[in-house]
Amino acid sequence: MTSEKELKQKAIALLNDGTVTAVLGWKKGLFDEDVTPYVFRTASEIENDFVYNGYCSANLAKYLVPISTRPNGINPVIQNADGTKTTPKTLVFLKEKDKLGFNLLVKEHRVNADNVVVVDVDFPASPTPNITVADIEKLSVDERFVFWKKELSRCIRCNACRDICPACTCEKCIFDNPKSEISQKVASDNFEENLYHIIRAWHVAGRCVGCGECGRVCPEHIPLHLINGKIIKEINEDFGEFQSGADSKTNSPLLTFEKDDPEANLF
Amino acid sequence: MFKPKIVAFCCNWCSYAGADLAGNNRLEYPADVKIIRIPCSCRLNPTFILRAFGRGADGVILCGCHPGDCHYSTGNYFARRRMKVLFSLLNFMGIDEGRTRVEWVSAAEGAKFAATMNEFVEKIRELGPNRKLTDLRLRDGEKDEHLSEQANWGDENVLPSERAAGGAE
Fold it and tell me: How many alpha carbons lie under 13 Å from residue A31 in its C-beta half-sphere?
């Protein structure tokens, strides 16, 4: 794991020589685990508040969407003395799996890579999940239904899975529409529970980078990454191996086709 | 007898005309099939399928042109990939694999259209009513009788004996 001191030095050096005007990192909170993504602007702020430890698992890539594409807001355009303008640059720390999300955002023109300076950081790999897609596939259809009903009925509709997802960056979201019938928590054993999660998974189908953040942030510990995990597995098996976000060029397999694709029917 | 509700999404250029031909030739298929015309099989948003199930459909079938014959050249190829992934996902979430289907029917295949619909309705009759996916408000107090004891975990106030007795209502 990269040391905090090293990152602080790097950030302050780039801030002082004018390469960047803001640093996107993690800010110290009241407790150790209380770490928040934050935009630092001065060297003293970084010296006092910047933190990098095992709790910094939050993916910073998605915060670049407003910062890099709308420079008049969070990181304003610099007015030079001679009347010219300089587009500000932001320094960001990305872990290996965050880079997949970053590449995806660049590919979809949601992040302007010209305005971003990326610094790679090491982060310990997350522990192996105790349940996998293959485990659930082994169950019968009815058992699978019961499994998901049990898991998804705990959903409190906090939208954390949607907000963390690097593939999920619509400005207007259907789940914010109070008339969508799925934005509210009506009854816990309702189909609407499943519907929310099926639609959420489907909206990122073929673009999901498989980072597993949705399952990590869930306050009810629902293994949400398994839903997208199944889609990724299916795409890999039927249409060839594909890792979304591995580069900023290749199109999603759902946006292309082969003439001899398998038929859709399962029987 | 159980009368299923079947929603058939038919491509305007092939299958909808195929259904027309089946009618002209006086071929019989059950009236349980409700046809919705779409401009191309590719137009089918997967949410339409979920919505149909949510509103009480027992089975959903998508009919389009044969691969290679799409009116818009490539629409059905995209639909095929999309449906492949969607059906696997629904099955993964616990939906019986027979409830969703894709069939390619051209405008000249009236007989195939009628045969497909007969076969599909028969399959849905076998599977029984769709209770897993319906909206709770449509269930009208019916018990999930086709599911195992374990599946009824939500009815904590109902004893298993009561459940067995009330299952037929």
Answer: 3
- The answer to whether residues A248 and A107 touch, using CB atoms and an 8 Å cutoff, is yes
Contacts of B85 in chain A (CB under 8 A): 205-206, 231, 234-235, 238, 254
Name B114's bridge partners: none
In this prediction the pTM is: 0.85
- Chain A residues closer than 8 Å to B54 by CB: 191-192, 195
pLDDT above 90 for A125: no
Give the closest-approach CA distance of B25 to chain A in angstroms: 28
Q: Any chain A CB within 8 A of the CB of B139?
A: no
Name the helix (H) or strand (E) containing A230.
helix A225-239
Chain mean pLDDT for chain A: 87
- pLDDT at residue number B150: 44
Question: Would an 8 Å CB–CB cutoff place A257 in contact with chain B?
Answer: yes
pLDDT, one tens digit per residue, over B148-165 is 444 444 444 444 455 555
- CB-CB under 8 Å, B92 with A230: yes
Q: Rounded to an integer, what distance in angstroms lies between the CA atom of residue B124 and that of residue A5?
A: 65
CB contact B99 to A (< 8 Å): no
Long-range contacts of A181-189 (CB under 8 A, 24+ apart): A183/A157, A184/A157, A185/A155, A185/A156, A185/A157, A186/B136, A187/B136, A188/A153, A188/A154, A188/B154, A189/A149, A189/A153, A189/B136, A189/B154
- pLDDT tens profile B112-161: 999 999 999 999 999 988 878 776 555 544 444 444 444 444 444 444 45
Percent of chain A with pLDDT over 90: 41
What is the predicted ipTM?
A: 0.87
pLDDT above 60: residue A216: yes
Task: Please identify among residues 197-226 of chain A the ones whose CB lies closer than 8 Å to any CB of chain B.
Answer: 198-199, 201-202, 205-206
**CA-to-CA distance for A82 and A220, rounded, in angstroms?**
55
Q: Which of B138, B90, B137, B116 is nearest to B35 (CA)?
A: B116
